[in-house]
Write a structure and sequence with these properties.
This protein is mainly β and about 220 residues long. It contains 2 helices and 17 strands. The longest helix has 24 residues. The radius of gyration is 31 Å and the shape is elongated.
Length: about 220
């Protein structure tokens, strides 16, 4: 029995040595990706090339994470979208409002799951309104539609649009027109957002007198 055990151990040890020697003795292999050499450790085992998983994932712009709890590596491609994830959706609308000589027209509503309002800042889940704001008088008027209040049909209320929006409010000289985007950072599921109430305080004159009524608009797109 001891003799058999010794022989088995000897054979197992020899196989490890020969396998390791085969791997070590194999010539260095270079991997080319899109006709460019890529620095990675290519090993030939049983005639087949093997490359570290992390390197393969990075070649295709993907992402790899390790989950300790399940002892699993998870790989996602750069264009992967989880089931149920929202896609960008745009809806043409025609909603107008006025406060004294000021006019606002909302042309389009876009639901964007990862809107980049600044290339150096993280993307946000957003509702984007394409608007035109106009002073129809020859006088200087101040109006602040970006600082309005937005109440979504989901129950969420938003009052900080000024952080992400274009400069389409403030002082308007005579006949001035401003076009741009009002961007709302939202927490709601975009698939559930179908409409909003939009409240804007009245326009004021150069002497800070109120010259227009408050505006309440209803915007529906689904």
């Amino acid at each position: 029995m001891k003799k058999k055990l010794w022989m088995f151990s000897f054979i197992f040890l020899c196989s490890i040595v020969f396998f390791s020697a085969g791997v070590l003795a194999a010539p260095k292999v270079t991997l080319f990706f899109n006709n460019k050499a890529y620095k990675t450790d290519v090993k030939i085992i049983n005639g087949k090339p093997y490359v570290p998983l992390a390197d393969v994932v990075s070649l295709f712009g993907g992402k790899m994470t390790y989950e300790k709890k399940s002892n699993a590596y998870k790989v996602t491609s750069k264009d992967y979208k989880p089931a149920g994830a929202s896609a960008v959706q745009s809806f043409n609308v025609n909603v107008t409002g006025s406060s004294g000589p000021m006019r606002i027209k909302i042309h389009k509503v876009t639901l964007h799951p990862s809107y980049k309002y600044d290339p150096y800042m993280p993307a946000i889940r957003a509702i984007v309104l394409d608007v035109t704001v106009e002073n129809t008088s020859s006088s200087k008027v101040s109006w602040y539609p970006v600082q309005g209040t937005f109440a979504l049909n989901t129950g969420e209320q938003i009052e900080d649009a000024i952080i992400y929006s274009d400069n389409v409010d403030g002082d308007f000289l005579g006949r001035a027109v401003k076009k741009g985007k009002i961007v709302l950072k939202v927490k709601s599921d975009l698939n559930a957002v179908r409409s909003m109430q939009y409240y804007i305080h009245g326009a004021v004159s150069d002497s800070f007198e109120t010259i227009g009524e408050d505006v309440l608009l209803t915007i529906k797109w689904k």
